[in-house]
Amino acid sequence: MVIEALLVSVQVAALAVVVSLPVAVPLALCLARRSFRGKILVETVVALPLVLPPVVTGFVLLMLLGRGTLVGGKLTEVFGASLLFTPAAAVLAAAIVAFPLLVRTLRVAFEGVDPQLEEAASTLGATTWRTFTRVTLPLAWHGVVAGLVLAFGRALGEFGATLVVAGTLPGGRITAPVAVYRMLLSGDPWRARGLVGGLVIVALLTTACAELLVRGGRSRRGRRA
Amino acid sequence: MNTDATNTVEGPALEVRAVVPGRLDVDLALGAGCTAVVGPSGAGKSTLLGVIAGLVHEARARVVLRGRTLDDEHGTRVPTADRGLGLQFQEARLFPHLSVRGNLAFPSRHGGRSGTPDPVACAAALGIADLLDRPAAELSGGEARRVALARALAAGSELLLLDEPLGGLDDGARERILPWLHRLLRAHPVPTLMVTHRMSEALYLADDAVVIEDGRVVAQGQPFDVLPARASVSSQREQETENLLAGVVGPDGCSVRVGSASLTVAAHDLPVGASVAVGLRAGDIVVGLSRHDDLSARNVLDGRIVALHPVADGLLARVDVGTTLLVSLTRHAADELGLAVGRDVVLYLKTTALRVSPAG
Fold this sequence. Notes:
heterodimer; A: mainly alpha; MetI-like fold; 11 helices; 77% helix; B: alpha+beta; 6-stranded mixed sheet; 5-stranded antiparallel sheet; disordered N terminus
Protein backbone atom coordinates (compact mmCIF):
# COMPACT_ATOMS: atom_id res chain seq x y z
CA MET A 1 0.00 0.00 0.00
CA VAL A 2 2.75 2.44 1.03
CA ILE A 3 5.11 1.44 -1.80
CA GLU A 4 2.28 1.36 -4.32
CA ALA A 5 1.06 4.85 -3.45
CA LEU A 6 4.61 6.20 -3.57
CA LEU A 7 5.18 4.58 -6.95
CA VAL A 8 1.96 6.02 -8.34
CA SER A 9 2.91 9.48 -7.10
CA VAL A 10 6.48 9.38 -8.45
CA GLN A 11 5.27 8.07 -11.80
CA VAL A 12 2.49 10.65 -12.05
CA ALA A 13 4.86 13.51 -11.06
CA ALA A 14 7.62 12.41 -13.44
CA LEU A 15 5.17 12.02 -16.31
CA ALA A 16 3.62 15.39 -15.52
CA VAL A 17 7.05 17.06 -15.84
CA VAL A 18 7.93 15.13 -19.00
CA VAL A 19 4.68 15.99 -20.80
CA SER A 20 5.01 19.64 -19.72
CA LEU A 21 8.53 20.08 -21.10
CA PRO A 22 7.74 20.22 -24.84
CA VAL A 23 5.37 23.11 -24.13
CA ALA A 24 7.21 24.73 -21.23
CA VAL A 25 10.65 25.00 -22.91
CA PRO A 26 9.57 26.80 -26.10
CA LEU A 27 7.20 28.97 -24.08
CA ALA A 28 9.92 29.91 -21.58
CA LEU A 29 12.37 30.65 -24.42
CA CYS A 30 9.77 32.78 -26.15
CA LEU A 31 8.97 34.73 -22.96
CA ALA A 32 12.69 35.16 -22.22
CA ARG A 33 13.77 36.34 -25.69
CA ARG A 34 10.85 37.97 -27.45
CA SER A 35 8.47 40.78 -26.87
CA PHE A 36 5.13 40.49 -28.56
CA ARG A 37 1.63 41.82 -28.36
CA GLY A 38 -0.33 40.09 -25.60
CA LYS A 39 2.76 38.93 -23.73
CA ILE A 40 1.29 40.05 -20.40
CA LEU A 41 -1.86 38.06 -21.11
CA VAL A 42 0.18 34.92 -21.80
CA GLU A 43 2.22 35.48 -18.63
CA THR A 44 -0.96 35.89 -16.58
CA VAL A 45 -2.60 32.76 -17.93
CA VAL A 46 0.58 30.75 -17.38
CA ALA A 47 0.88 31.97 -13.79
CA LEU A 48 -2.80 31.43 -12.96
CA PRO A 49 -2.59 27.84 -11.58
CA LEU A 50 0.09 29.05 -9.17
CA VAL A 51 -2.35 31.49 -7.59
CA LEU A 52 -5.60 29.58 -7.94
CA PRO A 53 -6.49 27.15 -5.15
CA PRO A 54 -5.82 23.67 -6.63
CA VAL A 55 -9.38 22.70 -5.83
CA VAL A 56 -10.55 25.35 -8.27
CA THR A 57 -8.23 23.95 -10.93
CA GLY A 58 -9.73 20.55 -10.15
CA PHE A 59 -13.22 21.93 -10.52
CA VAL A 60 -12.39 23.43 -13.92
CA LEU A 61 -10.86 20.12 -15.02
CA LEU A 62 -13.90 18.22 -13.80
CA MET A 63 -16.16 20.47 -15.81
CA LEU A 64 -13.92 20.09 -18.88
CA LEU A 65 -13.35 16.36 -18.72
CA GLY A 66 -16.78 15.18 -17.54
CA ARG A 67 -18.70 12.94 -19.88
CA GLY A 68 -21.51 15.40 -20.37
CA THR A 69 -19.35 18.40 -21.28
CA LEU A 70 -18.27 19.47 -24.76
CA VAL A 71 -14.55 18.76 -24.39
CA GLY A 72 -15.05 15.78 -22.12
CA GLY A 73 -17.65 14.29 -24.46
CA LYS A 74 -15.28 14.51 -27.42
CA LEU A 75 -12.43 13.02 -25.39
CA THR A 76 -14.68 10.21 -24.24
CA GLU A 77 -15.50 9.49 -27.89
CA VAL A 78 -11.82 9.42 -28.82
CA PHE A 79 -10.57 7.33 -25.91
CA GLY A 80 -13.67 5.20 -25.51
CA ALA A 81 -13.97 6.17 -21.86
CA SER A 82 -13.94 9.28 -19.73
CA LEU A 83 -10.52 10.50 -18.66
CA LEU A 84 -11.84 11.29 -15.19
CA PHE A 85 -10.39 9.10 -12.44
CA THR A 86 -7.72 7.67 -14.73
CA PRO A 87 -3.92 8.07 -14.41
CA ALA A 88 -4.14 10.51 -17.34
CA ALA A 89 -6.32 12.81 -15.28
CA ALA A 90 -3.85 12.59 -12.37
CA VAL A 91 -0.96 13.48 -14.70
CA LEU A 92 -2.94 16.32 -16.24
CA ALA A 93 -3.84 17.77 -12.85
CA ALA A 94 -0.25 17.53 -11.62
CA ALA A 95 1.10 19.00 -14.88
CA ILE A 96 -1.22 21.99 -14.75
CA VAL A 97 -0.38 22.97 -11.18
CA ALA A 98 3.38 22.42 -11.76
CA PHE A 99 3.45 24.21 -15.12
CA PRO A 100 3.81 27.82 -13.86
CA LEU A 101 6.78 26.89 -11.66
CA LEU A 102 8.46 25.08 -14.54
CA VAL A 103 7.94 27.90 -17.04
CA ARG A 104 9.00 30.64 -14.59
CA THR A 105 12.19 28.90 -13.52
CA LEU A 106 13.13 27.96 -17.09
CA ARG A 107 12.46 31.50 -18.21
CA VAL A 108 14.76 32.98 -15.59
CA ALA A 109 17.40 30.39 -16.50
CA PHE A 110 17.21 31.27 -20.21
CA GLU A 111 17.23 34.99 -19.46
CA GLY A 112 20.57 34.45 -17.73
CA VAL A 113 22.16 33.32 -20.99
CA ASP A 114 23.68 36.16 -23.00
CA PRO A 115 21.75 36.34 -26.30
CA GLN A 116 24.96 37.58 -27.91
CA LEU A 117 26.39 34.09 -27.45
CA GLU A 118 23.41 32.59 -29.27
CA GLU A 119 23.99 35.13 -32.03
CA ALA A 120 27.64 34.09 -32.21
CA ALA A 121 26.63 30.44 -32.47
CA SER A 122 24.36 31.23 -35.40
CA THR A 123 27.18 33.03 -37.23
CA LEU A 124 29.29 29.91 -36.73
CA GLY A 125 26.75 27.81 -38.58
CA ALA A 126 24.69 26.41 -35.71
CA THR A 127 20.98 25.99 -36.42
CA THR A 128 18.41 27.20 -33.90
CA TRP A 129 18.16 23.69 -32.43
CA ARG A 130 21.93 23.24 -32.17
CA THR A 131 22.34 26.67 -30.67
CA PHE A 132 19.79 25.66 -28.05
CA THR A 133 21.33 22.28 -27.23
CA ARG A 134 25.00 23.32 -27.41
CA VAL A 135 24.91 26.86 -26.04
CA THR A 136 21.68 27.90 -24.34
CA LEU A 137 20.92 24.66 -22.50
CA PRO A 138 24.43 24.06 -21.09
CA LEU A 139 24.69 27.68 -19.96
CA ALA A 140 21.21 27.62 -18.39
CA TRP A 141 21.74 24.14 -16.93
CA HIS A 142 21.70 25.18 -13.29
CA GLY A 143 18.36 26.90 -13.61
CA VAL A 144 16.88 24.20 -15.82
CA VAL A 145 17.62 21.57 -13.17
CA ALA A 146 16.10 23.84 -10.53
CA GLY A 147 12.98 24.14 -12.67
CA LEU A 148 12.69 20.38 -13.09
CA VAL A 149 13.06 19.83 -9.35
CA LEU A 150 10.53 22.48 -8.42
CA ALA A 151 8.01 21.17 -10.94
CA PHE A 152 8.55 17.57 -9.89
CA GLY A 153 8.19 18.50 -6.24
CA ARG A 154 5.02 20.46 -6.87
CA ALA A 155 3.57 17.62 -8.97
CA LEU A 156 4.50 15.08 -6.29
CA GLY A 157 2.69 17.09 -3.64
CA GLU A 158 -0.38 17.79 -5.76
CA PHE A 159 -3.48 17.09 -3.72
CA GLY A 160 -6.40 19.41 -4.29
CA ALA A 161 -6.96 19.08 -8.01
CA THR A 162 -5.99 15.42 -7.95
CA LEU A 163 -8.56 14.65 -5.27
CA VAL A 164 -11.27 16.14 -7.49
CA VAL A 165 -10.44 14.50 -10.82
CA ALA A 166 -8.33 11.45 -9.83
CA GLY A 167 -9.09 10.74 -6.19
CA THR A 168 -9.26 7.05 -6.93
CA LEU A 169 -7.66 5.42 -9.93
CA PRO A 170 -8.62 2.12 -11.56
CA GLY A 171 -7.71 -0.80 -9.33
CA GLY A 172 -8.16 1.30 -6.24
CA ARG A 173 -4.74 2.92 -6.59
CA ILE A 174 -4.34 6.41 -5.19
CA THR A 175 -1.51 8.97 -5.10
CA ALA A 176 0.53 9.26 -1.92
CA PRO A 177 -0.88 12.63 -0.70
CA VAL A 178 -4.44 11.37 -1.22
CA ALA A 179 -3.52 8.17 0.64
CA VAL A 180 -2.09 10.19 3.53
CA TYR A 181 -5.27 12.25 3.66
CA ARG A 182 -7.44 9.12 3.78
CA MET A 183 -5.29 7.61 6.55
CA LEU A 184 -5.57 10.81 8.56
CA LEU A 185 -9.35 10.64 8.23
CA SER A 186 -9.47 6.93 9.16
CA GLY A 187 -9.32 7.65 12.89
CA ASP A 188 -5.74 6.35 13.30
CA PRO A 189 -3.43 9.11 11.97
CA TRP A 190 -0.34 7.15 13.06
CA ARG A 191 -1.02 4.79 10.13
CA ALA A 192 0.24 7.51 7.80
CA ARG A 193 3.76 7.44 9.30
CA GLY A 194 5.18 5.00 6.71
CA LEU A 195 3.90 6.93 3.73
CA VAL A 196 4.94 10.28 5.18
CA GLY A 197 8.43 8.89 5.79
CA GLY A 198 8.46 7.56 2.24
CA LEU A 199 7.54 10.98 0.86
CA VAL A 200 10.33 12.59 2.87
CA ILE A 201 12.81 10.10 1.42
CA VAL A 202 11.57 10.75 -2.15
CA ALA A 203 11.96 14.50 -1.57
CA LEU A 204 15.50 14.00 -0.22
CA LEU A 205 16.44 11.79 -3.19
CA THR A 206 15.05 14.38 -5.58
CA THR A 207 17.12 17.24 -4.20
CA ALA A 208 20.20 15.00 -4.08
CA CYS A 209 19.71 14.04 -7.73
CA ALA A 210 19.34 17.70 -8.62
CA GLU A 211 22.63 18.52 -6.92
CA LEU A 212 24.35 15.69 -8.82
CA LEU A 213 22.86 16.90 -12.11
CA VAL A 214 24.05 20.44 -11.50
CA ARG A 215 27.55 19.26 -10.56
CA GLY A 216 27.72 16.95 -13.55
CA GLY A 217 26.86 19.82 -15.86
CA ARG A 218 29.36 22.05 -14.12
CA SER A 219 32.33 19.68 -14.32
CA ARG A 220 31.53 18.88 -17.93
CA ARG A 221 31.98 22.47 -18.92
CA GLY A 222 34.78 23.29 -16.54
CA ARG A 223 34.71 25.80 -13.75
CA ARG A 224 33.29 29.13 -14.73
CA ALA A 225 35.27 32.13 -13.67
CA MET B 1 18.47 39.84 -62.51
CA ASN B 2 21.27 37.39 -61.95
CA THR B 3 20.10 34.25 -60.23
CA ASP B 4 23.14 32.18 -61.21
CA ALA B 5 24.78 30.96 -58.04
CA THR B 6 28.23 30.70 -59.63
CA ASN B 7 28.82 34.16 -60.89
CA THR B 8 32.16 34.12 -62.64
CA VAL B 9 31.72 37.49 -64.35
CA GLU B 10 34.02 40.21 -63.05
CA GLY B 11 31.88 42.34 -60.81
CA PRO B 12 31.39 43.16 -57.19
CA ALA B 13 31.80 40.11 -54.98
CA LEU B 14 29.53 41.63 -52.40
CA GLU B 15 26.73 44.12 -52.92
CA VAL B 16 25.14 45.70 -49.89
CA ARG B 17 22.24 48.11 -49.91
CA ALA B 18 21.13 48.62 -46.36
CA VAL B 19 18.93 50.98 -44.40
CA VAL B 20 18.65 50.75 -40.64
CA PRO B 21 16.52 53.68 -39.52
CA GLY B 22 18.60 56.19 -37.61
CA ARG B 23 21.79 54.16 -37.82
CA LEU B 24 22.81 53.21 -41.33
CA ASP B 25 22.07 54.08 -44.94
CA VAL B 26 24.63 52.64 -47.34
CA ASP B 27 24.92 51.34 -50.87
CA LEU B 28 28.17 49.48 -51.43
CA ALA B 29 29.75 47.30 -54.08
CA LEU B 30 32.83 45.54 -52.78
CA GLY B 31 35.56 43.48 -54.40
CA ALA B 32 36.66 39.94 -53.67
CA GLY B 33 39.60 41.02 -51.51
CA CYS B 34 39.85 42.70 -48.17
CA THR B 35 37.96 45.94 -47.59
CA ALA B 36 38.84 48.13 -44.64
CA VAL B 37 35.86 49.81 -43.00
CA VAL B 38 36.92 52.89 -41.10
CA GLY B 39 35.23 55.79 -39.43
CA PRO B 40 34.61 57.30 -36.01
CA SER B 41 33.04 55.34 -33.17
CA GLY B 42 29.30 54.98 -33.53
CA ALA B 43 29.40 55.64 -37.27
CA GLY B 44 27.62 52.39 -38.04
CA LYS B 45 30.56 50.14 -38.95
CA SER B 46 29.55 47.28 -36.66
CA THR B 47 25.93 47.71 -37.69
CA LEU B 48 26.99 47.23 -41.30
CA LEU B 49 28.66 43.93 -40.42
CA GLY B 50 25.56 42.89 -38.46
CA VAL B 51 23.30 43.63 -41.43
CA ILE B 52 25.47 41.54 -43.77
CA ALA B 53 25.38 38.72 -41.21
CA GLY B 54 21.58 38.90 -41.05
CA LEU B 55 21.57 39.84 -37.38
CA VAL B 56 19.90 43.25 -37.55
CA HIS B 57 16.21 42.51 -37.69
CA GLU B 58 15.02 46.05 -38.26
CA ALA B 59 17.23 46.43 -41.34
CA ARG B 60 15.83 46.79 -44.81
CA ALA B 61 18.63 45.27 -46.80
CA ARG B 62 19.65 43.81 -50.10
CA VAL B 63 22.78 41.71 -49.76
CA VAL B 64 24.18 39.74 -52.70
CA LEU B 65 27.31 37.67 -52.16
CA ARG B 66 28.94 36.34 -55.34
CA GLY B 67 25.61 36.23 -57.12
CA ARG B 68 23.82 34.59 -54.21
CA THR B 69 21.06 36.72 -52.75
CA LEU B 70 21.22 36.68 -48.95
CA ASP B 71 18.65 39.40 -48.36
CA ASP B 72 16.32 41.28 -50.60
CA GLU B 73 13.26 43.47 -50.56
CA HIS B 74 11.02 40.54 -51.54
CA GLY B 75 11.49 38.87 -48.18
CA THR B 76 14.48 36.66 -48.96
CA ARG B 77 16.41 36.20 -45.76
CA VAL B 78 19.02 33.49 -45.69
CA PRO B 79 19.44 32.37 -42.05
CA THR B 80 22.65 33.60 -40.45
CA ALA B 81 23.78 30.00 -39.94
CA ASP B 82 23.61 29.31 -43.69
CA ARG B 83 25.62 32.32 -44.85
CA GLY B 84 29.05 30.74 -44.52
CA LEU B 85 30.21 33.60 -42.32
CA GLY B 86 33.16 34.11 -40.12
CA LEU B 87 32.18 37.01 -37.90
CA GLN B 88 34.50 38.33 -35.26
CA PHE B 89 32.45 40.56 -33.04
CA GLN B 90 33.81 43.59 -31.23
CA GLU B 91 33.51 41.50 -28.06
CA ALA B 92 35.12 38.06 -28.05
CA ARG B 93 31.82 36.25 -27.40
CA LEU B 94 33.51 32.95 -26.59
CA PHE B 95 31.36 30.17 -25.21
CA PRO B 96 32.27 30.16 -21.51
CA HIS B 97 31.21 26.54 -20.99
CA LEU B 98 33.65 25.26 -23.62
CA SER B 99 37.43 25.04 -23.73
CA VAL B 100 39.42 27.07 -26.22
CA ARG B 101 39.57 23.93 -28.37
CA GLY B 102 35.80 23.51 -28.08
CA ASN B 103 35.28 27.09 -29.19
CA LEU B 104 37.60 26.65 -32.16
CA ALA B 105 35.93 23.38 -33.17
CA PHE B 106 32.43 24.84 -32.90
CA PRO B 107 32.17 25.93 -36.57
CA SER B 108 33.33 22.60 -38.00
CA ARG B 109 31.02 20.67 -35.70
CA HIS B 110 27.99 22.75 -36.43
CA GLY B 111 28.46 24.32 -39.82
CA GLY B 112 30.26 21.55 -41.65
CA ARG B 113 32.17 24.17 -43.60
CA SER B 114 35.01 23.32 -45.95
CA GLY B 115 37.93 25.22 -47.43
CA THR B 116 38.51 27.21 -44.25
CA PRO B 117 41.84 27.41 -42.42
CA ASP B 118 42.56 24.86 -39.72
CA PRO B 119 41.65 26.54 -36.42
CA VAL B 120 44.41 24.83 -34.46
CA ALA B 121 47.01 26.03 -36.98
CA CYS B 122 45.51 29.52 -36.69
CA ALA B 123 45.75 29.25 -32.91
CA ALA B 124 49.43 28.37 -33.20
CA ALA B 125 50.11 31.32 -35.49
CA LEU B 126 48.21 33.61 -33.14
CA GLY B 127 50.30 32.46 -30.18
CA ILE B 128 47.48 30.75 -28.30
CA ALA B 129 48.49 27.11 -28.90
CA ASP B 130 49.26 26.70 -25.18
CA LEU B 131 45.72 27.67 -24.23
CA LEU B 132 43.79 25.04 -26.18
CA ASP B 133 42.66 23.09 -23.15
CA ARG B 134 41.89 26.10 -20.94
CA PRO B 135 38.25 26.96 -20.27
CA ALA B 136 37.37 29.95 -22.41
CA ALA B 137 36.02 31.74 -19.34
CA GLU B 138 39.53 31.90 -17.84
CA LEU B 139 41.25 33.77 -20.65
CA SER B 140 42.49 37.35 -20.49
CA GLY B 141 40.94 39.91 -22.82
CA GLY B 142 43.74 39.75 -25.38
CA GLU B 143 43.79 35.96 -25.36
CA ALA B 144 40.03 35.79 -25.81
CA ARG B 145 40.22 38.15 -28.79
CA ARG B 146 42.79 35.95 -30.50
CA VAL B 147 40.66 32.85 -29.96
CA ALA B 148 37.68 34.74 -31.37
CA LEU B 149 39.73 35.70 -34.44
CA ALA B 150 40.87 32.10 -35.02
CA ARG B 151 37.30 30.89 -34.58
CA ALA B 152 35.94 33.43 -37.07
CA LEU B 153 38.65 32.61 -39.62
CA ALA B 154 37.83 28.91 -39.31
CA ALA B 155 34.14 29.58 -39.87
CA GLY B 156 34.30 31.96 -42.82
CA SER B 157 33.94 29.80 -45.89
CA GLU B 158 32.14 32.47 -47.94
CA LEU B 159 32.68 35.76 -46.18
CA LEU B 160 34.77 37.18 -43.37
CA LEU B 161 33.50 40.02 -41.20
CA LEU B 162 36.18 41.14 -38.76
CA ASP B 163 35.39 43.86 -36.24
CA GLU B 164 38.74 45.18 -35.08
CA PRO B 165 40.50 41.83 -35.47
CA LEU B 166 43.66 42.99 -33.72
CA GLY B 167 42.06 45.33 -31.21
CA GLY B 168 43.49 45.13 -27.73
CA LEU B 169 46.77 43.54 -28.85
CA ASP B 170 50.12 45.18 -28.21
CA ASP B 171 52.22 46.49 -31.10
CA GLY B 172 54.59 43.53 -31.09
CA ALA B 173 51.77 41.01 -31.36
CA ARG B 174 50.04 43.06 -34.04
CA GLU B 175 53.15 43.31 -36.16
CA ARG B 176 53.72 39.56 -35.91
CA ILE B 177 50.11 38.70 -36.71
CA LEU B 178 49.47 41.16 -39.55
CA PRO B 179 51.80 39.49 -42.10
CA TRP B 180 50.40 36.09 -41.17
CA LEU B 181 46.85 37.35 -41.58
CA HIS B 182 47.83 38.88 -44.90
CA ARG B 183 49.15 35.54 -46.17
CA LEU B 184 46.13 33.70 -44.80
CA LEU B 185 43.71 35.99 -46.62
CA ARG B 186 45.67 35.34 -49.81
CA ALA B 187 45.68 31.58 -49.28
CA HIS B 188 41.96 31.45 -48.43
CA PRO B 189 40.54 34.23 -50.54
CA VAL B 190 37.06 35.13 -49.38
CA PRO B 191 35.56 38.60 -49.47
CA THR B 192 36.56 40.26 -46.21
CA LEU B 193 35.27 43.32 -44.40
CA MET B 194 37.56 44.52 -41.67
CA VAL B 195 36.61 47.29 -39.28
CA THR B 196 39.72 49.00 -38.01
CA HIS B 197 40.85 52.19 -36.32
CA ARG B 198 44.46 51.73 -37.31
CA MET B 199 45.68 53.06 -40.58
CA SER B 200 48.60 50.62 -40.68
CA GLU B 201 46.25 47.64 -40.55
CA ALA B 202 44.10 49.03 -43.33
CA LEU B 203 47.09 49.93 -45.49
CA TYR B 204 48.74 46.58 -44.89
CA LEU B 205 45.77 44.23 -45.34
CA ALA B 206 43.15 45.95 -47.41
CA ASP B 207 42.76 46.27 -51.16
CA ASP B 208 39.93 48.69 -50.76
CA ALA B 209 38.72 51.07 -48.08
CA VAL B 210 35.35 52.48 -47.15
CA VAL B 211 34.93 55.42 -44.81
CA ILE B 212 31.64 55.59 -42.92
CA GLU B 213 30.48 58.62 -40.97
CA ASP B 214 27.05 59.05 -39.39
CA GLY B 215 25.81 55.89 -41.06
CA ARG B 216 26.75 56.99 -44.56
CA VAL B 217 29.62 56.17 -46.90
CA VAL B 218 31.68 59.33 -47.29
CA ALA B 219 34.60 57.87 -49.23
CA GLN B 220 35.57 54.66 -50.96
CA GLY B 221 38.70 53.74 -52.87
CA GLN B 222 42.26 52.52 -52.61
CA PRO B 223 43.41 52.61 -48.97
CA PHE B 224 46.35 54.86 -49.82
CA ASP B 225 44.05 57.32 -51.56
CA VAL B 226 41.27 57.32 -48.99
CA LEU B 227 42.76 56.78 -45.58
CA PRO B 228 45.57 59.29 -44.99
CA ALA B 229 43.14 62.12 -45.63
CA ARG B 230 40.93 60.98 -42.75
CA ALA B 231 42.47 62.32 -39.63
CA SER B 232 39.91 60.38 -37.62
CA VAL B 233 41.39 57.11 -38.86
CA SER B 234 44.63 57.61 -37.06
CA SER B 235 43.69 58.19 -33.49
CA GLN B 236 46.07 60.73 -32.07
CA ARG B 237 45.95 59.13 -28.65
CA GLU B 238 47.36 55.84 -29.81
CA GLN B 239 50.96 55.43 -30.74
CA GLU B 240 50.20 54.38 -34.28
CA THR B 241 52.86 52.76 -36.40
CA GLU B 242 51.69 53.99 -39.77
CA ASN B 243 54.20 52.13 -41.93
CA LEU B 244 54.30 48.38 -41.80
CA LEU B 245 56.36 46.88 -44.59
CA ALA B 246 56.70 43.23 -45.62
CA GLY B 247 60.32 42.31 -46.28
CA VAL B 248 62.96 39.61 -46.31
CA VAL B 249 66.18 39.51 -44.29
CA GLY B 250 69.05 40.29 -46.69
CA PRO B 251 72.24 38.25 -47.22
CA ASP B 252 74.36 40.23 -44.76
CA GLY B 253 71.84 39.64 -41.97
CA CYS B 254 71.53 43.27 -40.90
CA SER B 255 69.57 44.52 -43.88
CA VAL B 256 66.01 43.90 -44.98
CA ARG B 257 64.83 44.05 -48.57
CA VAL B 258 61.51 45.80 -48.91
CA GLY B 259 60.38 45.98 -52.52
CA SER B 260 63.31 47.45 -54.41
CA ALA B 261 64.67 49.24 -51.35
CA SER B 262 67.17 47.85 -48.86
CA LEU B 263 67.02 49.01 -45.25
CA THR B 264 69.74 48.70 -42.64
CA VAL B 265 68.22 47.46 -39.41
CA ALA B 266 69.46 46.93 -35.87
CA ALA B 267 70.94 43.60 -34.85
CA HIS B 268 68.42 40.77 -34.63
CA ASP B 269 68.59 36.99 -34.49
CA LEU B 270 66.45 36.17 -37.51
CA PRO B 271 67.95 33.95 -40.25
CA VAL B 272 68.84 35.22 -43.71
CA GLY B 273 65.86 34.96 -46.03
CA ALA B 274 63.28 35.08 -43.21
CA SER B 275 60.06 36.97 -43.87
CA VAL B 276 59.73 39.95 -41.59
CA ALA B 277 57.53 42.92 -40.97
CA VAL B 278 59.24 46.27 -40.53
CA GLY B 279 57.34 48.83 -38.48
CA LEU B 280 58.17 52.49 -38.84
CA ARG B 281 56.34 55.54 -37.52
CA ALA B 282 55.55 58.28 -39.96
CA GLY B 283 56.92 60.77 -37.47
CA ASP B 284 60.32 59.05 -37.25
CA ILE B 285 61.23 59.83 -40.85
CA VAL B 286 63.30 62.90 -41.74
CA VAL B 287 62.69 64.54 -45.09
CA GLY B 288 65.42 66.34 -47.01
CA LEU B 289 65.83 67.79 -50.45
CA SER B 290 69.34 66.46 -51.10
CA ARG B 291 71.68 63.76 -49.81
CA HIS B 292 73.87 64.59 -46.84
CA ASP B 293 76.78 62.37 -45.83
CA ASP B 294 77.28 63.91 -42.41
CA LEU B 295 74.13 62.47 -40.76
CA SER B 296 73.97 59.52 -38.43
CA ALA B 297 70.95 57.99 -40.19
CA ARG B 298 72.03 54.78 -41.87
CA ASN B 299 69.17 54.59 -44.31
CA VAL B 300 68.98 57.21 -47.00
CA LEU B 301 66.30 56.64 -49.59
CA ASP B 302 65.54 58.62 -52.72
CA GLY B 303 61.88 59.06 -53.42
CA ARG B 304 59.16 61.19 -54.85
CA ILE B 305 56.12 62.66 -53.15
CA VAL B 306 53.01 60.99 -54.57
CA ALA B 307 50.44 62.73 -52.43
CA LEU B 308 50.11 65.19 -49.58
CA HIS B 309 47.18 64.88 -47.21
CA PRO B 310 46.28 67.46 -44.62
CA VAL B 311 45.70 65.85 -41.22
CA ALA B 312 44.76 67.33 -37.87
CA ASP B 313 48.22 68.44 -36.80
CA GLY B 314 50.03 68.88 -40.12
CA LEU B 315 50.55 66.94 -43.29
CA LEU B 316 50.91 63.29 -44.17
CA ALA B 317 53.02 62.71 -47.29
CA ARG B 318 53.00 59.57 -49.35
CA VAL B 319 56.49 59.01 -50.69
CA ASP B 320 57.36 56.40 -53.30
CA VAL B 321 60.79 54.94 -52.51
CA GLY B 322 60.25 51.66 -54.34
CA THR B 323 57.63 50.94 -51.76
CA THR B 324 55.27 53.53 -50.35
CA LEU B 325 56.05 55.21 -47.04
CA LEU B 326 53.85 57.55 -45.05
CA VAL B 327 55.76 60.50 -43.65
CA SER B 328 54.31 63.06 -41.27
CA LEU B 329 55.39 66.66 -41.40
CA THR B 330 54.43 69.94 -39.85
CA ARG B 331 52.94 72.46 -42.22
CA HIS B 332 55.76 74.79 -41.35
CA ALA B 333 58.45 72.32 -42.44
CA ALA B 334 56.59 71.44 -45.61
CA ASP B 335 56.28 75.12 -46.54
CA GLU B 336 59.92 75.83 -45.81
CA LEU B 337 61.10 72.95 -47.99
CA GLY B 338 58.55 73.79 -50.67
CA LEU B 339 57.19 70.25 -50.66
CA ALA B 340 54.57 69.43 -53.26
CA VAL B 341 53.28 66.43 -55.13
CA GLY B 342 55.84 65.26 -57.69
CA ARG B 343 58.79 66.72 -55.79
CA ASP B 344 61.88 64.50 -55.42
CA VAL B 345 62.94 64.10 -51.80
CA VAL B 346 65.42 62.13 -49.72
CA LEU B 347 64.20 60.21 -46.68
CA TYR B 348 66.45 59.53 -43.69
CA LEU B 349 65.52 56.63 -41.44
CA LYS B 350 67.34 55.93 -38.22
CA THR B 351 68.18 52.27 -37.77
CA THR B 352 66.70 52.38 -34.28
CA ALA B 353 63.39 53.63 -35.64
CA LEU B 354 62.91 50.44 -37.64
CA ARG B 355 61.22 47.68 -35.68
CA VAL B 356 61.73 44.25 -37.20
CA SER B 357 59.48 41.38 -36.23
CA PRO B 358 59.18 37.87 -37.64
CA ALA B 359 56.23 37.58 -40.00
CA GLY B 360 53.80 35.01 -38.66
